[in-house]
Recover the amino acids of this structure.
């Protein structure tokens, strides 16, 4: 895809353009974590089982991961500006469906649809930054982009806690999704005016065969990981994992011979790329489980409110400097101790295993100081 910025584009317009792109990224990143804090409330009100909650939380990130490569290629075919706006509209509409979902099944399906929009939206952001910024300005824009990736995680936890605790208009957890609608509408109004037109690469093609193989392979791998535990790891789960792994190997071989490959495997040749991607795969594979498990532990075992659970994750994303960390710890300690005490505590006295978590909430975030 070839995107041409107007020669007269000023720094001010680039700044506004970057604000639109990064706000879209914040929305997509935030919705990957915002539901974790609301998961306990959603489970109680919709009478959802463990598998449904896992799909509501993890299904978003898994679907995004499955479709990210495909949607990045779609940006090359139809134009990154068009793909960004289409993904933004899709994401905003799906957020409305999530907020109106009457039961867990509808919410799971709406989250998957929402993830499709996020998958189409997010890869265009970095590509547009690469095209329209140069030199030091590009480095600063990418720095802000990286900061937003981590900031979205923190905002998701905090805003999720604030919204659920506030119980706005008696809507309980639903505003965690509905909050995207006014933001998305504003971006859809100003985005076409600020984002420069682009023309597509005439030689770009979408490898439908590669899309089919990769989608089936990733589904075969992820489905048993989500449902296998609740069903006692039956034979079908192990069979699906083996078949998915075999399909991934087949996808790699297919891409080496494809005329218009979905994924250019030449990017894996430089030294250090494969180990780095492997490390990222392991870290991000555990990341969703970490968010969901810890959030449920804070609320069900330690008795935190949704707001307290959300605030407990702030040091995890902040992670910059011991002075800042200690300030957050003092703030969070005062909030957590002033509010409801954990289950099992009486008049400020807590079991030894719980006391340290309450008095030092910042320690929850220490393992993540290098994340993002």
């Amino acid at each position: 895809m070839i995107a041409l910025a107007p020669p007269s584009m000023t720094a001010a317009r680039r700044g506004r353009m970057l604000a639109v792109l990064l706000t879209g990224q914040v929305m997509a990143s935030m919705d990957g974590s915002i539901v974790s804090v609301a998961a306990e409330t959603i489970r109680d009100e919709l009478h959802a089982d463990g598998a449904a909650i896992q799909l509501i939380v993890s299904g978003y990130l898994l679907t995004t991961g499955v479709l990210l490569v495909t949607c990045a290629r779609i940006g090359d075919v139809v134009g990154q500006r068009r793909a960004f706006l289409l993904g933004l509209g899709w994401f905003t509409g799906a957020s409305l469906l999530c907020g109106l979902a009457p039961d867990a099944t509808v919410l799971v399906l709406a989250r998957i649809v929402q993830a499709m929009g996020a998958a189409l939206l997010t890869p265009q952001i970095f590509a547009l930054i690469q095209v329209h910024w140069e030199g030091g300005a590009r480095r600063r824009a990418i720095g802000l982009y990286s900061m937003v990736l981590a900031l979205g995680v923190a905002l998701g936890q905090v805003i999720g806690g604030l919204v659920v605790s506030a119980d706005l208009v008696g809507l309980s957890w639903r505003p965690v999704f509905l909050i995207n609608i006014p933001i998305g509408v504003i971006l859809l109004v100003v985005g076409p005016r600020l984002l420069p037109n682009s023309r597509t690469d005439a030689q770009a093609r979408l490898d439908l065969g590669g899309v089919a193989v990769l989608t089936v392979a990733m589904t075969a791998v992820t489905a048993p990981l989500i449902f296998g535990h609740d069903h006692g790891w039956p034979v079908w789960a192990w069979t699906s994992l083996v078949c998915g792994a075999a399909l991934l190997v087949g996808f790699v071989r297919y891409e080496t011979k494809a005329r218009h490959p979905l994924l250019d495997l030449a990017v894996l040749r430089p030294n250090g790329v494969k180990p780095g991607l492997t490390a990222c795969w392991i870290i991000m594979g555990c990341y969703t489980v970490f968010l969901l498990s810890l959030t449920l532990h804070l609320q069900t075992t330690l008795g935190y409110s949704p707001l307290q659970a959300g605030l407990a994750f702030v040091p995890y994303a902040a992670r910059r400097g011991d002075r800042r960390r200690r300030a957050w710890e003092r703030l969070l300690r005062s909030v957590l101790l002033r509010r409801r005490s954990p289950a099992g505590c009486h008049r400020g006295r807590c079991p030894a295993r719980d006391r340290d978590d309450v008095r030092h909430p910042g320690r929850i975030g220490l393992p993540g100081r290098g994340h993002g």
